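Q: Can someone sanity-check these two? First one:
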Amino acid sequence: MSTSTQHDESAGGRKADAAGGRKGDEAGGAATGEPGIRETVVRAAGAALAAVEQLAGGLSTALMALFVLLWTAVTAVLCLAGVGLLMAPAVLRALHSLAARERDRLGRWGPEVVGPGPAPTRLRLALVDPTTRRELRWLAHHATLGLPLGLFGVLLPLFAIRDSAFPLYWRLMPEGATSTSIGLGIAHSWPDAIAVGLLGLGWIAIIVGLTPGMARLQARPGRRLLAAGPETDLSLRVAQLTASRAAALDAHSAELRRIERSLHDGTQNRLVTVTVLLGAARRMVARDPSGAEELLERAQSAAEQALSELRQVGRGILPPVLADRGLAGALTGLAASCLVPCRIDVEAPERCAASVEATAYFVVAEALTNIAKHSHAENATVTVRSRDGRLHLHITDDGRGGADEDGGSGLTGIRRRIAAHDGTLFLTSPAGGPTTLKVELPCGS
């Protein structure tokens, strides 16, 4: 009896110890796993937000794709009557521009989509061009699949916000109004309102679980069809990128030489003068106070000039007016200080990368300086437009023309700055004028 009791007690003790050990292990595992769970939740939420942003961006290009697809269909029908042949080049330009915009969008959210060379805009060449055929296939996919995916990606967060917050305002809803975002149900009591709030939490779960896959599904046709096909020779693109990198290094070296020259020839000489004058004033202060005071005034003037030159060098590196007033305000300031009357027309609703805006600023500054020095113009115009992910600059003047890039007018430096961003420059300056400088820069580089 006693032996059996002791055995039971010892067995019970072992079970209790085992249970306690399991509970301790579970508690320790929970404590150890808590940071991992929190990190997983944060990562999932960040991925969902990024996916929603991708889907919203894809919605904008999908709407344009639907328009271009309908335009293409109408043009194809009108080609039977001959009228569409006149519309075909415009349709092809719109198609290629939209495809380039989609490549830029996909490149911002993943690996860069390297496209082939320029596609033709003449109908006869486009019919046999593999790039145009691939872009047309992408257009159909994106207009039919990317559009609903992008629409769901935009509507799901709105549904989640509306239904999750419904218990806070359900009493303010009109009598008989639908409770849910999908148009079902009417809330008559607190349990009904809380049920709608739980539906909002369900929308959030759907966003976290499905939107990353939806974003990948929306981007898949573009990454597959808009990239350079196996028949495309990328050697030219590699050569262009190599030349662009070399131009960037040359522009960087030239900029360093300019800064060094400005500091050596200007500011350094001013500071040497300040040092000499201060030394002379210190020696004269006892025997000739008035002369020492005059030297101190000259030293102060030289120090102020050195400070002014330092500010000019700093503005030449990155003008602070760009950060304070944006590109439009900075160009307006350049026009106000130009000796030739200049009109500024800027339409760039979205800010570009700081390096791109700085390059645009320096291009306009150098061009206006050339106009004031060499063109004998009476008027100049600077037009800036931002579209399709690129910044377009048009600088014109009514001067005598004849601008030569090899004539030491600063155009070589402008071209190097632009090439560093993989941009383009076109100069038209016949004798007698007018002179037109066209610059195109990618906004996000």
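And here is the second, same format, sequence then tokens:
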Amino acid sequence: MTTTAENFRTVYGKPPAGVWAAPGRVNLIGEYTDFNDGFVMPFALPHCTRVAAAPRTDGRLRLYSRDAQGGVTEEPRGWAAYPAGVAWALREAGLPVGGADVYVESDVPVGAGLSSSAALEVATALALTELYDAGLPGPELARLAQRAENAFVGVPCGIMDQMASACCRAGHALHLDTRDLSMRQIPLALEQWGLRLLVIDTRVKHELGDGAYAARRAGCESAARRLGVRALREVACGELQAALGELPAAERPLVRHVVTENDRVERVAALLAAGDSRAAGPLLTEGHASLRDDFRVSCAELDVVVETAVKAGALGARMTGGGFGGSAIALVEGADEERVTKAITEALGTARVFGTAAGEGARRVA
């Protein structure tokens, strides 16, 4: 099998200056809380996007993806908008980033809610900054990658995905405060505890989800204004009922999800830190019910996967990512992995199930 560097040479007729990698992510708990200044707890997948790159002296950015149709392009459209947006964001920030030839390949599943776009952005950002000796700490790299997606691509995402890709450590989940980007690395060595975490890619995506993210974000921001707070993260669980009484009916379930989800993140973090990871399972399932019933971002396939996994003996399960398709996760005893996997694939024939561990964040690999 040829290497990423060899593939770069085939496309561009010269060797790259280096190869950089950034992972996709799974969010263990904390969904739709990041744009509310809340808490999240993702971990990095072993699956990565790899970027090989070499500098150019003419300022041009030439892009090629092994996984997309077409040849080398300089047009910032489709997949190419993501790396082009990163170059734009870096330059807008005043960094001395020039032109480059860029080759991209990835094994992060696309459309599965596992942040393939953030992996591409962060790998590109790391490559370009190191090519031009403009290295940045992980959080700042993530901020600029998020800016590329928000302002250049036009997706109003929070910062969780880019922070996970840039800053996660192998064997750990990243407990992240999205307000100030303070981080704690929480041990997630599940196999040492006799556990496995399954990722279930439903391989479905419903069009209903296209405008749902922006609509729910707008609803949360409207509720925060009504409550007189900067963001919903400022509403404590003990204040929830009083807060709900001040809101119109349409905004109450959004606020209920965000406030209770922030609390679930803190509880899961405490359980993992104490080595009581099995007790986190029911909180995952509780989080799915909140996403399904209050935030209304689940779908029939995700619900089938979660219900089937729990009935088959999983300690807990939930959708992960934006919803309306994509992926779910299930926490299982190691001895139950095969049985739970079989039950899921029988219930949903499209599902791809794989066990995973917490991988390493963005880094240079060659």
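A (reply): Looked at the second one. The chain has a mean pLDDT of 95. DSSP finds eleven helices and eleven strands in the chain.
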